[in-house]
Each structure stands twice: as C-alpha cells, then as structure tokens.
C-alpha cells in the first residue's frame, strides 16, 4: 500500500467554499480513478486559518502516479481549473 497526506491551510472565510469544491470536484475525480479516501479532517491552524487534510490510499506508488496522471488528463481537470479561475486563480487560492 501507498499512502498520501494532502493538506491545505486556508483562510477561515474560505473553508466552506473549499469544502464544497472538494465534494463536488476533487473527491469524485479521485474516486473515479481508483484512489481511496481514508479520511479528511480540519483543524485550527491559527486565529485566521484552518488546516484541511486528507489521507489517501493507493495499491502502490506506481498506481498513485497512474491515478494522478489520469486525474490531470480528464475532462474533470477542466472543472477544477475553472473553479480556481472563478476564485481568482491558483496563486490567490494558495495564499
């Protein structure tokens, strides 16, 4: 098995938007391609930010790499990119 911990630190006023994006776009895209979500949690990071993190399981590192290639090549990736654009771009979201 291969496990990945994916995390984000987001502004508290952005948590709801970010979680909706995860449920509507990222989660279905990952599951459709064979990733398994072990769990997803949120924890205060500071007075103004929240850490959101997930543990994903894959059969192997090679399978993880294959799934990631597929996720990025799918039509679904266009939805994810459009979402980032609607939020002011990846750089703004990452800040």
UniProtKB/TrEMBL annotation:
Residues 8-68 form the NIPSNAP domain. SUPFAM superfamilies: Dimeric alpha+beta barrel (SSF54909). Pfam families: NIPSNAP. Gene3D superfamilies: 3.30.70.100. InterPro entries: Dimeric_a/b-barrel, NIPSNAP. Coiled coil: none annotated. It comes from Paenibacillus physcomitrellae. It comes from the Bacteria. This is NIPSNAP domain-containing protein.
